[in-house]
Amino acid sequence: MDIKAVRDNFLKGFIKENPLFVTVLGTCPALAITTKVENAVGMGIALFFVLILSNLLVSLVTFKPKLRALVMPVRIPVYIVLIATLVVITEMLMEAFLQPLYVTLGVFIPLIVVNCIIFGRAEAYASDHKPLDSVVDGAGMALGFTMAIIIISFFREILGSGMITVWTQGNADLVFDLHFIYDFLGITPIDMFTKPVGGFVMFGLILAVLAAGANAKAEKAKLAAAGVKK
Q: What angle do CA 135, 106, 53 make, to 5 degrees?
């Protein structure tokens, strides 16, 4: 096993091929549920479970040549059945053990069935790679997406409500009240960031910062290649 290849396969989902910040997939749940860090963590857990297992199952049913010949002509319905089964299991588990989070995420849990990230990885990667590689790819992409929505929700929640709600399930509450910062500055949180428009604004700002960084890096590399010192 090539450890470097496995590492690169896993890490590409965080920066190089981040599903949200680079390929801009899964924006619907990303903008809708990122009003709290807790929501982002919950969605990340659900997506992690579904994406890893869907990649594994898709790889298993397309890895053997004979089975692949049967599956590929009808691969889309096959993917839908596999992913929908995993999503139903995830939804039932969340309803049973994470009831408040299940209610908060609402319709966005079953909508994982048609999430572009899940279908994208099944079609672009898992259907042409070995099961282990597909699992590693799924884990990296799921964690990369989770990292992205946590970043968005972190800034939206601080700016919109002056708090960071990491977890409020059962007796394990983990909430940070940052209103003292606003009180010190003599201002109040910006309610806009708790609304849908706030999601678009924050997402746009983050993409702008990332684009500016990428452009600066590319310009620096261009100057270095030309032998110009700055």
A: 10
List Cβ neighbours of 62 (8 Å cut-off, separation of 6 or more): 68, 71, 72, 75, 126, 127, 128
Task: Convert the pLDDT of each residue in 98-156 to its tens digit.
Answer: 888 888 888 888 888 878 899 889 989 999 999 999 999 999 999 999 999 999 999 99
| Alpha-carbon dihedral angle through residues 190, 195, 197, 203, given to the nearest 10 degrees | 80
What one-character-per-residue DSSP string does 181-199 give? Answer: HHHHHT----GGGGSHHHH
In 3-state terms, what secondary structure has residue 176? Answer: strand
CB atoms under 10 Å from CB of 31, counted, come to: 20
Angle (CA) 159 164 170, round 5°: 150
**How far is residue 202's CA from residue 156's CA, in Å, rounded to a whole number?**
7
